[in-house]
């Protein structure tokens, strides 16, 4: 069962997944964060979501990008943000 996280859960999930401690997630760490939230997709679906979340195209997901995609996609509680992430 997927539990919809609240905005307060996201920093904790992000920190746990940030194995390198560099305050950004690579694709593997992003996958870990999604799995912790109960969001499990195929490798190509996860790659697609990673690319959509990476709004500055640096190859990593910052906390701000992580929170934005989680809220924009409705995967987290809180207001739906209008941002650079396109709706699927």
Automatic annotation (TrEMBL):
Q: Which organism is it from?
A: Actinomadura decatromicini
Show the Pfam families listed in the entry: EF-hand_7
Its recorded name reads EF-hand domain-containing protein
* InterPro entries (UniProt xref): EF-hand-dom_pair, EF_hand_dom
Q: Name one GO molecular function term.
A: calcium ion binding
Domain EF-hand positions: 5-40, 41-76
């Amino acid at each position: 069962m997927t539990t919809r996280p609240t905005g307060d859960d996201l920093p904790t999930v992000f920190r746990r997944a940030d194995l390198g401690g560099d305050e950004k997630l690579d694709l593997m760490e992003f996958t870990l964060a999604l799995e912790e939230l109960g969001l499990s997709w195929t490798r190509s679906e996860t790659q697609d979501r990673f690319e959509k979340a990476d709004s500055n195209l640096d190859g990593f997901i910052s906390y701000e990008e992580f929170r934005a995609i989680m809220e924009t996609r409705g995967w987290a509680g809180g207001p739906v943000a209008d941002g650079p992430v396109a709706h699927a």
